[in-house]
Known about the structure:
With 380 residues, the chain is an alpha/beta fold. Helices cover 45% and strands 11% of the residues. The protein has helices at 2-30, 37-45, 49-67, 106-118, 136-149, 164-172, 187-193, 200-213, 230-243, 269-282, 292-297, 301-307, 320-323, 339-351; strands at 70-73, 75-80, 123-128, 154-158, 177-179, 216-223, 247-252, 312-313, 356-358. The protein is globular, with a radius of gyration of 21 Å. Residues 89-90, 181, 183, 222, 251, 253-254, 256, 293, 328-329 line the site of 5'-deoxyadenosine (5AD).
Amino acid sequence: xxxxxxxxAHISGKNFSMNNDMKQCIEKLLSGERLTREExxxxxxERTKETASKIAEEARRRKQAVYGDSIFLRGIxxxxxxxxxxxxxxxxxxxxxxxxxYRLSKEEILQCCRAGYEIGMRTxxxxxxEDGAYTDSVLEEIIRGIKKEFPDCAVTLSLGxxxxxxxxxxxxxxADRYLLRHETADPExxxxxxxxxxxxxxRMHCLYELREIGYDVGAGMMVGSPYQTERELAEDLYFIQDxxxxxxxxxxxxxxxxxxxxxxxxxxxxxxxxxxxxxxLIEPEVLLPATTALGTIDPRGRxxxxxxxxxxxxxxxxxxxxxxxxxxxxxxxxxxxxxGQCGACIELRMRTVGSRIAxxxxxIRRDGFRSGILCRKKLE
Length: 380
Ligand code: 5AD
Ligand code: FES
């Protein structure tokens, strides 16, 4: 009798203090205060359905206050699947001999942009593996070509790690934004996802260089990548809070059959949605995509992402004949849909969650406290 009374008191005491810590974390998050790594960790570990839905509701409200009900489209042109890297998670890693490698010409890339423009896209994302055939001068030509034909559009690059001089030349040629997911903010975790010759420090260095040049920069990570725990995710959130990327791409890890991670479990919908909401609250102006990977693990994943605080969708503009060769993970969606089909599909999907597609470049709102800021911390 006495025993049970004591343990009950102990349990409720413990619960009380846990809830209190959690409550404090949520209050800090909602009031725009910085959280420590430990607080981010607690937030992730102690999340419940109820806290996730409260945070999602607040994230939606913040998004609405900054961007209204607009969803911005980014048309992705996957122009080359040749890659010199060998990331353990990625389907187009150089060791995968089952992939037929392809490269698109400037004219083919422009064709993709035309199809995207027709359906209201005003940002084109040029994405590829790290392919040395696309030298600075080849890329400058392509960027200038797009800018000339579509002066009202933004060009986003997603070409991996290059040197600063190269980033500068591409920026001078007219590129506006650059996506380079940091993949993980923990150096030890980074080593478990990449071969030895790839460097965490170099990747981070690139992000700071891009920022310095003047690009709008996108960071991001996979959710549920192998060896990731709440601690690594907390580190990611802490990095995002520090670096303040203009864009943040997060989606679930999904295993690919021809990679060393083929038997690893995929990341979850629930955790991805939770993190989307937390990131929206850390950085209310951030441009946050509901990724294709999210749409792959759940048929309404992208809609759910929008309800969790995302405000960007990135439909595929690559020619259908090469899409199957750009499979970063298994069962990627929209493999056979032409631009027009995707456009109509996305339009309808967004309407079901009270959002509408904006025919707009979808630049980051800078009128608030962001104007003129650089990151808070700089790596040497
Ligand atoms: N599952 C989910 N996302 C992946 N990416 C690469 N491979 C996978 C995978 N198996 C993501 C990486 C990369 C982006 C282009 O795609 O985060 O930066
Ligand atoms: Fe491509 Fe639905 S978004 S078919």
